[in-house]
């Protein structure tokens, strides 16, 4: 029994695909050049110079500085809420500064970085109108935006590397809120907040 060579298999596949798509033998879907536009790796430029507030404690200052450059290079206006040294600071203070700018409409989105991202997320979510999400991969970045309409991102500098942090940030900034059934659920999240507020103050 003779064996079929790799070339024979390739030729058979090409012939079947071409017949299925109605292409001639000289116009093959296989081996066709990929349009250069699909290979672009450029970061999306922020429309209308949207403002992003960003801050970190001493444990996240190095990553914050890298992401500040990433944001400005992508066309965003940036409000840097500190810290800018390795001297110890308290992450709730930074989280409040970033979250307040988003809550008051002075920033479109906020980014907060500490060692694990957990404490900053807790602190930011105490500010009315804030939906902060701790993201650690592509899926959580997409989900927090599409399902929860998160307006503040928190990152753990001690848990993720620089490249992953850049990917998460880019994904989170570009992902759109899905609306629909998710809108009803986000409204319920905000309704919980309102039950504990009276005239803008905790009752």
From the helix content, strand content and strand pairing, which structural class follows?
A: alpha/beta
CATH architecture label name: 3-Layer(aba) Sandwich
| Helix run count | 7
- Tally the structural domains: 1
Query: What name goes with the CATH superfamily?
Result: Sugar-phosphate isomerase, RpiB/LacA/LacB
What is the structure about, briefly put?
With 203 residues, this protein is of the alpha/beta class. Helices cover 42% and strands 14% of the residues. Helix 2 links the parallel strand 1 and strand 2.
Task: Sum up the structure in keywords.
alpha/beta; 42% helix; five-stranded parallel beta sheet; Ribose 5-phosphate Isomerase B, Chain: A; 7 helices; 203 residues; two-stranded antiparallel sheet
Verbal overview:
With 203 residues, this protein is of the alpha/beta class. The protein has one domain (47-195): Sugar-phosphate isomerase, RpiB/LacA/LacB (Ribose 5-phosphate Isomerase B, Chain: A, 3-Layer(aba) Sandwich). Helix content is 42%, strand content 14%. It has 7 helices and 7 strands, in the order H-E-H-E-H-E-H-E-H-E-H-H-E-E. It has helices spanning 6-21, 61-73, 91-103, 118-124, 138-146, 162-174, 181-195, and strands spanning 51-56, 77-80, 109-114, 132-134, 152-156, 197-198, 201-202. Strands 2-1-3-5-4 form a 5-stranded parallel β-sheet, sandwiched between helices. It has a two-stranded antiparallel ribbon with strand order 6-7. Helix 2 packs across helix 6 and helix 5 runs parallel beside helix 6. It is globular and about 45 Å long.
């Amino acid at each position: 029994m003779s064996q079929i060579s790799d070339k024979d298999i390739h030729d058979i596949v090409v012939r079947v695909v071409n017949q299925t798509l109605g292409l001639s033998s000289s116009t093959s879907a296989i081996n066709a050049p990929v349009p250069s536009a699909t290979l672009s790796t450029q970061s999306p430029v922020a429309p209308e110079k949207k403002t992003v507030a960003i801050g970190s404690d001493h444990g996240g200052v190095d990553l914050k500085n890298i992401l500040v450059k990433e944001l400005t290079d992508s066309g965003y206006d940036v409000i840097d809420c500190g810290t800018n040294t390795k001297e110890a600071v308290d992450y709730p203070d930074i989280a409040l500064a970033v979250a307040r700018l988003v809550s008051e409409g002075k920033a479109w989105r906020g980014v907060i970085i500490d060692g694990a991202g957990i404490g900053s997320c807790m602190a930011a979510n105490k500010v009315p109108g804030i939906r902060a999400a701790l993201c650690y991969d592509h899926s959580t970045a997409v989900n927090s935006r599409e399902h929860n309409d998160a307006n503040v991102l928190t990152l753990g500098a001690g848990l993720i590397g620089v490249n992953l942090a850049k990917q998460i940030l880019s994904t989170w900034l570009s992902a759109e809120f899905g609306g629909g059934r998710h809108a009803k659920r986000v409204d319920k999240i905000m309704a919980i907040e309102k039950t504990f507020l009276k005239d803008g103050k905790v009752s």
